Structures are given as C-alpha cells and as structure tokens.
User: Fold this.
Amino acid sequence: MSAHSPATGCTDTPVLRERGQREVFCGLTGIIWLHRKMQDAFFLVVGSRTCAHLLQSAAGVMIFAEPRFGTAILEEKDLAGMADANAELDREVARLLDRRPDIRQLFLVGSCPSEVIKLDLSRAAERLSAAHGPKVRVLNFSGSGIETTFTEGEDACLASMVPALPTTEAKELLMVGALPDVVEDQALSLLGQIGVGPVRCLPAKRAAMDPAIGPNTRYALTQPFLGDTHSALQRRGAQHIDAPFPFGAEGTTLWLKAVAAEFGISPETVDQVVAAPRARAEKAIAAATETLRGKRVFFMPDSQLEIPLARFLTRECGMQAVEISTPYLHTTIHRAELALIAPGPTISEGQDVDLQLDRVRAARPDLTVCGLGLANPLEAEGLATKWAIELVFTPVHFYEQAGDLASLFARPLRRRALLAASHPNRMEAAE
Ligand code: SF4
Assistant:
C-alpha cells in the first residue's frame, strides 16, 4: 500500500455471516415513530390481536392523542378460509375515511397473519386508491415479524412511497429518513446556513409537502437501515450522496461536507458554519467519554444502527469494539462507515443467537448493545447492556444530540460502577 492510499478501515474485513434463530422486534414498531412524523397519514395494520397489543403497549403514551394508527383484526374465520377478508377490509377503510376526513395517506400494513393467509395488500391498496383517490393515497408495506427486524418497517414504508412521488428535473437535496421534528429543523437550519438548497424531506410532515424525484435529485440518507428506499430512489434515477451518517461531531461534519460538495460548496465553508455547534458537540461528548474510554463494546444485530454507532464510539469516545453485528450489511450504504472503523473487531451479519451469546460470554465485554429479550439474561450474568431500541426512540442525530448519544452508552456503565461501589459482594457473586 502506498503512503497516499486512502484508509480502508474494515472495508475488506471478511464478514461472518450467520443465519440462525434471531431475537428481534417486528417491523410494526416503526409505526410508533412514523405516525408522529406524518401528520395526515394513517397506518392500518391488517393483523391479529397480538399486533394490536404490540402497538398499543409500545405506543402507550399516545393513548390520549388523536390516533393515527389502528388494527383491522383478522378473526379466526378469516385465517381459516380468507372468508371475505377483502370485502371486510374495504368496509373498514370506507368507515375509517368517512370518520376521519383529515387522512390523506393511508398505509395498509401487512403483518404475520396477513402474510400467512397471503392476503394481497398491494392489490387492495390499488383498489382502495381507485375508490378513494386522489384525495387519499392508499399504499401498502409489510411490518411482519417473519424474517424481518424492527427498523425494516420504516424502510418498507418509505420505499412504498417512492414510486408514487411526482417527477422533477430540479436539482434538489432530498434528506431521507424519519427524524424527530426538532432534529430535522436543526439539520435544515445548518444546511440553509451552509448554502445547500432547496432541501426536501422524505417522509414529509404532510402529503402536500411530499418531494418530487428526478435525475437531478441528490439524496442523503440519515438512517443506515434504508436499503430498500435507497434502491427505490436509484430506480427513479436519483443520485446517492455517499457519506457516513450524522451521528457524533465527526459523522455530522462528514455528512454535511459530502452534501455540500454535491452542491459545489467547499469544506472550509462548512467548517466555518459548523464551528460553534461542532465545538458544543465535542464538549458534550468529552463529558461522557470519561466513562467510555478504553471500555470494550459488543454489538448484537438489532437496530441496523450498529455500524455507524461503532464508528462513533471507537473514534469519538475511545471505546474498543469487540464485535459489530448488524442484521443486514448494506455494502453501498455502509461503505463510508466501514472505511472509518479501525481493523480489529469481528464484523458479522445476521445472527445465530446461541453461537453469538457464546462469543459474548467468552469476550465478557464491558457493554453489550442488544435487544430487550437478551438484555435481562446478560445482566443476570453480570454483563452491562444497552437496549438497542432506545437508540431509535431517542433523538441522537446531528450536533446538538451528540452528547446525549454518548451518554446513552455511558449510563449503564456508570450504573454498574455505582452498584459495584455500594454492593461489592453482590457484584462479585454475579460475575
Ligand atoms: S406482525 Fe407478527 S411479530 Fe409483529 S406483532 Fe403481529 S404477529 Fe407479532
């Protein structure tokens, strides 16, 4: 390698691929954050009482708000013989739209039961669009837990929207991924100050604000789990901006610089604009880094945020990654991230949960990032854990959230240190 070759980090690290039993939530989970984002959309889950319970318990805090999701329950007679599930669905949708004239986009969301009985929701969406359009656009996607992980719900939702978006020849930036409004506003403000524009968002807050797409659209992903949406945008001829994701001070700066370059704006201009928020982010990260530096982290595959977060923790917080495991390794989307991670950790895709737990036990990392179902048993074995799902529900993108992101990882370590100090004998017994 010549002295001037670009660093390749983990780009060429052989990937350990496992296909066994997995422990993850299903894609319906995405509705919890999508329904807050898309204010005139409604998510109608075509599923069972289990699906309804999952949504209600996961979104319990929204119970007093005007609901933007519901479940069309497939009864046992439907599951046995399909009965007239389509006619019943049409009646449910007509009743819903009659009651809720504010709805402009209706998503029929597939689930395990609707997939098992092979209910064709894409045909149902076409039929219902013809009946209720153009006022209401009816689309469909699957949130089924069969062979999927929970962040795929958002990906499937956004990918379902792309073919229906209008066409444009304008050169615009499309920021892709559902961000909390406050975070989206911060990003738009930074992009505006840098001189990037016009900027559109997918998903938009309202159907009337939906972006148009064309060959001059440049799109930057803000979430690393949008593989299908990325492919759908490519099919519309839009151009992907290859960049690390906007997590941490470094990730945010590199993301902004990659976007700025597409619009002919220099990295120096970006540096000038972001100097103050970047310094704030670095200071906030440094506070958490006192706890994180030198600690070993193991990522189990869950949220699909694992690769960018490992980059953030190793480069900005001084942690050492033992294994970075992701449900799916999207080489085109993750390339810029992998290039930044120093060689050393095992990179794995998919899961065989028992084999992976053996590796966790052998490595005894200081922190294991994993799903809820695995966290309690690992804690009982004396290992500190972080619930991956919290990383998706908490605002963690861009500069102002970088300190909170680092703190999310520091908190379980601090808690264990406190426990160890107050109950030294109990901690020894656990370990
Ligand atoms: S979609 Fe499947 S995994 Fe998800 S709640 Fe419904 S039945 Fe359970």
